[in-house]
């Protein structure tokens, strides 16, 4: 088996998003660096804490250690500002209002919103739909739209595409990659789908309770 790569590889590379000695509950310490326009796949056995890891990075759960964006520590930001810049998109999104439009950012560029909707396979009339008529897959794709229209600096994606057919999954992946290239946004993508990881990720990290290990994408056994 290939030896795991060091998490601190690429010392001369400029990193936009950095994690140092992150701990939450009985997990960690975890350290990770991610440059702009880079997608890191996060794998690991079910129940190991991948969702909790993303929630800690988004400052949604209590944690210790350092998380920084463009050299600025998480503690320098208010929680709402940090979460707007380091945006978590869960596999199962939450909806608070009756219609789709009310979930989209007030005052956003309508033309840009329509372009994002079309990129995810919708027409602009979807804004008038009732949330109650949406399928789980439609909710997942629209949850991506409502986050991308806010232009976050980092994307934390938790099992996105898992409830989609291949065509809509590829639409979602393409929309994320296009956004990433435009804004040089690091993406951390939790996935159990090896084919998806090979399609979209530049690097792969396997999560254990006490560490992260970087692996070659070509390895057959990631766990």
CATH architecture: 3-Layer(aba) Sandwich
Helical run tally: 6
Estimated share of beta-strand residues: 15-25%
CATH class: Alpha Beta
Shape: globular
What brief labels describe this structure?
single chain, 223 residues, alpha/beta, 28% helix, disordered N terminus
Describe this structure in words.
- The protein has 223 residues and is α/β, with parallel strands linked by helices.
- It has helices spanning 50-57, 79-85, 110-119, 136-148, 166-183, 194-200, and strands at residues 17-24, 27-34, 39-43, 64-69, 72-73, 86-89, 154-158, 187-190, 203-207, 212-215.
- The radius of gyration is 17 Å and the shape is globular.
Secondary structure topology:
Blueprint: E1 17-24, E2 27-34, E3 39-43, H1 50-57, E4 64-69, E5 72-73, H2 79-85, E6 86-89, H3 110-119, H4 136-148, E7 154-158, H5 166-183, E8 187-190, H6 194-200, E9 203-207, E10 212-215
Parallel strand pairs: 3-8, 3-9, 6-7, 7-8
Antiparallel strand pairs: 1-2, 1-4, 4-5, 9-10
């Amino acid at each position: 088996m290939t030896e795991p790569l060091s998490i601190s590889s690429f010392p001369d590379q400029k990193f936009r998003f950095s994690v140092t000695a992150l701990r939450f509950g009985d997990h960690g310490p975890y350290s990770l660096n991610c440059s702009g326009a880079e997608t890191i796949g996060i794998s690991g056995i079910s129940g190991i804490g991948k969702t909790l890891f993303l929630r800690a990075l988004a400052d949604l759960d209590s944690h210790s250690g350092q998380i920084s964006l463009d050299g600025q520590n998480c503690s320098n930001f208010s929680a709402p500002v940090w979460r707007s810049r380091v945006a978590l998109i869960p596999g199962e999104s939450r909806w608070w209002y009756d219609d789709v439009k009310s979930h989209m950012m007030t005052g956003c560029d309508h033309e840009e919103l329509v372009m994002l909707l079309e990129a995810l396979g919708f027409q602009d009339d979807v804004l008038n739909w009732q949330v109650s008529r949406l399928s789980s897959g439609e909710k997942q794709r629209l949850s991506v739209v409502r986050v991308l229209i806010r232009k976050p600096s980092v994307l934390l994606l938790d099992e996105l595409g898992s409830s989609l057919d291949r065509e809509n999954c590829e639409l979602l992946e393409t929309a994320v990659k296009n956004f990433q290239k435009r804004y040089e946004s690091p993406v951390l993508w939790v996935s159990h789908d090896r084919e998806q990881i090979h399609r979209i990720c530049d690097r792969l990290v396997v999560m254990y309770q006490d560490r992260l290990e970087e692996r070659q994408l070509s390895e057959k056994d990631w766990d």
